């Protein structure tokens, strides 16, 4: 596969850079990274795969990512025929991507799960119809902007011997900037299920919030992170939004996913189906989850979970 001459990456969340840089290395000859941070942050990106890093200044509590359209545009315009900008599929990065798309007359694909080159053009697979299906789109614009969901690419190990250039870029405030008004703390978790190697997921088969304790115990014994289906996170509010696996939640790339009391509706499986091995326990033998599972057990999770805990404790 021939590569693009230059690929650019930007993320409002620094933890997403390793995946974006891995994708950029796959698609481009020269990898250019734009980052809001300090010199150490920029140097880290070089070790993770960037050839050139453009430092857009140090963030503050009042930094609004959407206001960085102008400095990003300035760098892209300095390159003859820029072809691809990869961004993280966060709410703020997607808002910035939309602004850049209009200002640069660039094609935009959001929430891409896969990306490749087809006859020199960018082609991406992304979710449509609320996650009920995937669509493949090929970009015909001169510049393509693609936001990648977490877990779309595996991060490459850092190379301490890599070298590259770091350039400081002046921030230019737009004529009509967004203005910081107020910050309210968000209640949530720092868990990142997209990076977990083992995940235990719980669904509506759990009938009481107090019963989460036995599921948490099982997850601890398996050295696994705990996730859930949408009703548990957004309906019952028993678990944090960050633990929701599904179309508008997390996409797993774990080695194993143990689904407990989860029916397996398509909205959930869009986020779970990339797990290498799926093990399902559900008392309904006709549950859709068994169509996706590598191993399945028809049974009551209230009997299966205690039995697994006993077995693991030996």
UniProtKB/TrEMBL annotation:
Q: Which cofactor does it need?
A: FAD
Example GO biological process term?
fatty acid beta-oxidation using acyl-CoA dehydrogenase
Could you state a single Gene Ontology molecular function term? electron transfer activity
- What Pfam families would the database entry show? ETF, ETF_alpha
Alphabetical list of InterPro entries matching this protein: DHS-like_NAD/FAD-binding_dom, ETF_a/b_N, ETF_a/FixB, ETF_asu_C, ETF_asu_C_CS, Rossmann-like_a/b/a_fold
Q: So what family is this one in?
A: Belongs to the ETF alpha-subunit/FixB family.
Protein name in UniProt: Electron transfer flavoprotein subunit alpha
Q: Which organism is it from?
A: Budvicia aquatica
